[in-house]
Amino acid sequence: MKYYPVNLDIRHQPCLVVGGGAVGTRKVKTLLDCGAAVTVVSPEVTDPLSVLAAENHISLKRRPYQASDLDGVFLVIGATDNKNLNRAIYDDAKKQGKLCNIADQPDLCNFILPSIIERGDLIIAISTSGKSPAVASRLRKQIEAQFGPEYAAFLKLMGAVRKILLEQAHDPAAHRLIFESLIDQGLLECIRNGDKAQIDNMLISVLGPGHGYDWVCARGDDI
Fold first, then answer.
1. Would you say 61 and 39 are in contact if contact means Cβ atoms under 8 Å apart?
2. Buried b / exposed e across 34-71, counting CB within 10 Å, b at 16+?
3. Closest by CA position to 191, among listed 139, 125, 119, 117
4. SS3 210
5. What is the pLDDT of residues 89-147, one digit of tens each?
6. How many whole angstroms separate alpha carbon 95 and alpha carbon 65?
7. Strand order of the sheet with strand 37-41?
8. Domain spans of the chain, in order of start
9. How far is the C-alpha of 169 from the C-alpha of 216, rounded, in Å?
10. How far apart are CA 55 and CA 77, in angstroms?
11. What are the φ/ψ torsions at residue 37 (nearest 5 degrees)?
12. In 53-173, which ranges are E strands?
């Protein structure tokens, strides 16, 4: 099996989670973090899911799963400990051409969820194609040590610079050279060390006089 890697935009997309236990709760939180409109179907749910429902962050149906729950759904995740139910969810989703993931059963999935590392807008996905979640978890821990929180600020600043450049009449090839210059000058290390003065010098050197850290932040993303 060779998977096609893809990042999905699920903002405001209707997504269904069947199962209200610990696994289902984790899946719901990840979907919400990505802006999905989440519905949970389960006779019993965890306290966190009850709170999310009470605060109108999710739609909760406290009953057994029905095939009609898939109507209008973009993506479904099965997170129950009932193998027969998980198979039924997958079969129903396959008939309707839905994206379907059954937790811990890669043979009942048309997509799988990688182990991820998030640093703001930086997302690093690790997949063993369903062969060994333990290996993916070990690799995630190793990579987490290499990519600290400075990457979140780094990407925000680079995004702010890009936004400014797009407002100007620059050749895209020139943009690439500007970003490479900032990287080569050690912008990431300066952010890691909190060296605002040196960051200012770098921004001014590539963007021109007056284009320091505060100016870039004011014109772009809040950092």
1. yes
2. eebbbbbbbeebbeebbebbeeeebebbeeebeeebbe
3. 119
4. coil
5. 999 999 999 999 999 898 999 999 888 899 998 999 998 887 888 898 899 999 998 99
6. 16
7. 59-61, 37-41, 14-18, 75-78, 99-102
8. 1-113, 114-147, 150-219
9. 17
10. 22
11. -95, 105
12. 59-61, 75-78, 99-102, 115-119, 122-126
Q: What's the CATH fold of domain 1-113? A: Rossmann fold (3.40.50)
Domain 114-147 coded CATH 3.30.160: yes
CB 13 within 8 A of CB 75: yes
- Residue 221, pLDDT > 60, answer no
Task: Give CA torsion, residues 58, 118, 10, 85, to 10 deg.
Answer: -60
Q: What is the pLDDT of residue 169?
A: 65
Closest listed residue to residue 37, CA positions, set 54, 65, 15: 15
CA 48 to chain centre: 21
Amino acid sitting at position 54:
A
Distance CA 105, CA 130 (A): 9
Q: Which residues are CB-contacts of 86 (< 8 A; sequence separation ≥ 6)?
A: 78, 80, 102, 105, 108
Please say whether the beta carbons of 74 and 99 come within 8 A.
Answer: yes
**AA identity, residue 117:** I
